[in-house]
Design a protein that fits this description.
Layout: E1 8-12, H1 14-17, H2 31-43, E2 48-50, H3 58-65, E3 73-77, H4 90-108, E4 115-118, H5 126-141, E5 147-150, H6 154-161, E6 168-172, H7 179-182, H8 185-190, E7 196-200, H9 207-210, H10 224-237, H11 243-252, E8 259-263, H12 267-276, H13 284-293, H14 299-302
Parallel strand pairs: 1-2, 1-8, 2-3, 3-4, 4-5, 5-6, 6-7, 7-8
Helix pairs in contact: 2-3, 3-4, 4-5
């Protein structure tokens, strides 16, 4: 039987502010096209949008497109704070954090942020904990409703989950990704029922659904054509419409995932993702079968930051 509460579709916005994704053939959409895309998603029932200070002008575009829609929830991320030297004073750190917060509030046209994530998990402890301490002050005064962390690794996830004030985690996940279960992250998440979990990169930056082995990064130990063949065979085996349908149904079928973050550059892509989300997710037993049969890929493939330029 399908799970009782499949993960919701969360619209990602990196593609709205940047040319983003290994399989992105369309580039950053023009402003009016981006605004139309966001409004169409909201009109179709998408209730949560994901963004970040580092996504170019994505926050500002979301703020313009969603103004007046108070039922919409926005998850954004703190600026990378690259301008801070390693020996920055507490006052300088606080000023940088406050500036990022103010810029997000202005761009999103909000009086408070629904959810703010650290874009870098290392900022939990950086500068003697000054960044995190300042964000908790903003959490206490109501400028931020929910605080969380965007993580890249199991180590970062465990560090974040050890902090009681973290009630939102975002992580990369797809049907080839074995890291989180083996490292005990899923078990840790299941023990924290106060934490909302959003999964990003369910299509692995578009590689899984591109049907083009030549787009895959050169990673020792993988043969892209074999992976594409396995994806197609598995989609057929479980009677899914496509690899995209399979990948999304697998992620939405995980009972520890609350939302699946997917970006799109075109209205056609949005319509297809909305259509796929009307289909039932995979049942738990089917997800288990896929996880057991999936090729064991190197961890390097699962982390786009480690991909070499083609």
């Amino acid at each position: 039987m399908p799970i009782a509460r499949p993960a919701e579709l969360v619209m990602g916005s990196a593609q709205l502010g940047l040319t983003y994704g290994a399989a992105n053939r369309n580039g950053k959409p023009a402003r009016e096209a981006a605004l139309r895309l966001v409004r169409r998603a909201a009109d179709a029932g998408v209730a949560t949008f994901d963004t970040a200070r580092a996504y170019g002008d994505a926050e500002e575009r979301l703020g313009e497109a969603l103004k007046g829609r108070r039922a919409i929830r926005t998850v954004t991320k703190l600026a990378p704070l690259n301008e801070l030297p390693s020996d920055a004073s507490d006052a300088a750190v606080i000023a940088a954090v406050d500036l990022s917060l103010e810029q997000s509030l202005t761009a999103l046209r909000r009086n408070s942020l629904d959810c703010l994530l650290l874009h870098r998990a290392s900022h939990m402890t950086a500068f003697g904990g000054a960044i995190w301490a300042r964000l908790k002050e903003h959490l206490a005064n109501g400028a931020i409703a929910t605080l969380g962390v965007s993580v890249q690794s199991a180590k970062e996830a465990h560090m974040a989950l050890a902090e009681p004030s973290v009630t939102h985690i975002q992580l990369p996940f797809n049907l080839l990704d074995w890291r989180w279960r083996e490292a005990g992250v899923i078990a840790a998440l299941e023990a924290r029922n106060d934490v909302t979990v959003h999964a990003r990169s369910v299509f692995l930056q578009g590689l899984l659904v591109a049907d083009d082995p030549h787009l895959w990064p050169r990673v020792p130990g993988i043969e892209p054509s074999c992976l594409v063949a396995w994806l197609k065979e598995t989609a057929n085996c479980f009677e899914r419409d496509s690899i995209a349908d399979l990948a999304l149904a697998y992620a939405r079928g995980q009972d520890w995932i609350d939302g699946v973050v997917i970006g799109q550059e075109t209205e056609h892509q949005l319509d297809e993702n909305l259509r796929l989300c009307t289909r039932p997710p995979l049942a738990a037993e089917d997800c288990a079968l896929i996880a057991a049969s999936a090729p064991r890929v190197p961890e390097k493939l699962l982390d786009p930051a480690q991909w070499k330029s083609q």
